[in-house]
Amino acid sequence: MNWDSVSAFLHMGGYGLYVWGSFGVTLLLLALETALLSRRARRVADEIRQQTKAARPPLKPRHTGQD
């Protein structure tokens, strides 16, 4: 397809609203998915950190032999 101007490109022969609308919805959903996955990964990492912290015995002081 050849377009004479930017306006003609954006209009897409009368289908611009559908084309650009679908691009917009897709980008919105991708951003939402990325944000939700990031939040879930952070929660899982925090949960693992808490579990390992609770399961780890307290550290005993080391004797360095320099007394």
In words, what does this structure look like?
Required for the export of heme to the periplasm for the biogenesis of c-type cytochromes. Keywords: Cell inner membrane, Cell membrane, Cytochrome c-type biogenesis, Membrane, Transmembrane, Transmembrane helix, Transport. This is Heme exporter protein D. The chain is an all-alpha fold. It has one domain. The chain has 2 helices and no strands. It is rod-shaped.
Number of strands: 0
Structural class: mainly alpha
User: Mean pLDDT, rounded to whole units?
Assistant: 89
* Count of folded domains: 1
Cα radius of gyration in angstroms? 28 Å
- How much of the sequence lies in strands comes to under 5%
Q: Report the span from N to C terminus.
A: 85 Å
Low-confidence stretches: none
Question: What is the makeup of the main sheet?
Answer: none
Give the overall shape. Answer: rod-shaped
Helix content: 55-70%
* SSE pattern: HH
The number of helical runs is 2
Membrane topology: Single-pass membrane protein
Transmembrane segments: 12-32
Keywords: Cell inner membrane, Cell membrane, Cytochrome c-type biogenesis, Membrane, Transmembrane, Transmembrane helix, Transport
Region (Disordered): 48-67
Summarize the structure.
This protein has one domain (6-55). 69% of the residues lie in helices and 0% in strands.
